[in-house]
Amino acid sequence: PFDVLVVGGGPSGASAAIYAARKGIRTGIVADRFGGQIMDTLGIENFISVKYTEGPKLAASLEEHVKEYDIDIMNSQRAKRLEKKDFVEIELENGAVLKSKTVILSTGARWRNVGVPGEAEFKNKGVAYCPHCDGPLFEGKDVAVIGGGNSGIEAAIDLAGIVKHVTVIEYAAELKADSVLQDRLYSLPNVTVIKNAQTKEITGTDKVNGITYIDRETEEEHHVELQGVFVQIGLVPNTDWLGDTVERTRMGEIVVDNRGATSIPGVFAAGDCTNSPYKQIIISMGSGANAALGAFDYLIRN
Ligand code: FAD
């Protein structure tokens, strides 16, 4: 059996595996797609100490760093079941069952798409998902935020301080965000809120030039000219496969303590699949390191 088996090969999983292997214990990493979300990222400007890099380049460095150690890498493999017996067992979709004294879940998350024409086409060409990452690219420009929940309104408030104008597009008749956030939003001079609006299309040529929505009351179609669209309708953790094993929040995020421990002894979690409030590369790497140290601490006590 492994001492530490990491499930997920994004920034948090790579970091957890390196921290574990540096303790000289038997470490493995299973990943559906090594690199994780950063494989879909173009420019990265907030990975501190690296002024600018690109996702695939950072993913290649992660893999190179992991390969410096005696880590059993199982790429292109999906975990489908976790069970705690004498060891923690992880069953893969290919039928193999891996056993480990401890497991670190780092299966990440994915942004929910609006699924309208133009969204996929203009990803990284005006369509963005992360205001902390891409907000500064839209300085002085007009943008829309799709989604009026807490994340959408937080994004709109954040962006309003950087861009020229923000249009919030909410499908329902009311914003769902907390009222303190709504109050703050409505106090800003450069924000317009459009409710009851169904996004129909993100338009553009080589990059985004506008958004078309349908007023759900009048069924009239409207077009707003702008250069950026932030989709903020939810970040879904990749944790469905865990069923009712480890405790998760209503949103499906794995609940961890400050050592990355979950509700099952010996099972730890890190990164975007957990209930950590902010989802960023540097944060997920930190939490991967934290969970690996948590797992090591568990191993020497059990
Ligand atoms: P992920 O990166 O999601 O990795 C999850 C890993 O788990 C992957 O290897 C995946 O294949 C694997 N996996 C999932 N399910 C299973 C399973 N059942 N079995 C086996 N393996 C599985 N952050 C920044 O700090 N700066 C940025 O500029 C930035 N830009 C971004 C741009 C985009 C378009 C996106 C989508 C995200 C961006 N982020 C950015 C966020 C950042 O990418 C994430 O916070 C970070 O990748 C989270 O790392 P993670 O390891 O927790 O999860």
Structure write-up:
This protein has 302 residues and is α/β, with parallel strands linked by helices. The chain has two domains: 2-110 and 236-301, FAD/NAD(P)-binding domain (3-Layer(bba) Sandwich), CATH 3.50.50; 127-231, FAD/NAD(P)-binding domain, CATH 3.50.50.60. Helices cover 23% and strands 30% of the residues. The chain has helices spanning 11-21, 55-67, 131-134, 150-160, 179-186, 281-301; strands at residues 2-7, 27-31, 43-44, 53-54, 71-75, 79-84, 88-92, 97-105, 109-111, 127-128, 142-146, 165-169, 191-194, 197-204, 208-215, 221-225, 228-231, 235-237, 267-269. The strands form five sheets. Strands 1, 2, 5, 6, 7, 8 and 19 form a seven-stranded mixed beta sheet that branches. It has a five-stranded parallel beta sheet with strand order 10-17-11-12-13, with helices on one face. Strands 14-15-16 form a three-stranded antiparallel beta sheet, with no helix packed on it. Helix 1 (11-21) packs parallel to helix 2 (55-67), helix 1 runs parallel beside helix 6 and helix 4 runs parallel beside helix 5 (179-186). The longest helix has 21 residues, at 281-301. The radius of gyration is 21 Å and the shape is elongated. The model has no long low-confidence stretch (mean pLDDT 97). Flavin-adenine dinucleotide (FAD) binds at residues 7-13, 30-34, 36-38, 40-41, 44, 46, 78-79, 106-109, 111, 129-130, 133, 238, 241, 271-272, 279-282, 284. Residues 7-13, 30-34, 36-38, 40-41, 44, 46, 78-79, 106-109, 111, 129-130, 133, 238, 241, 271-272, 279-282, 284 line the site of flavin-adenine dinucleotide.
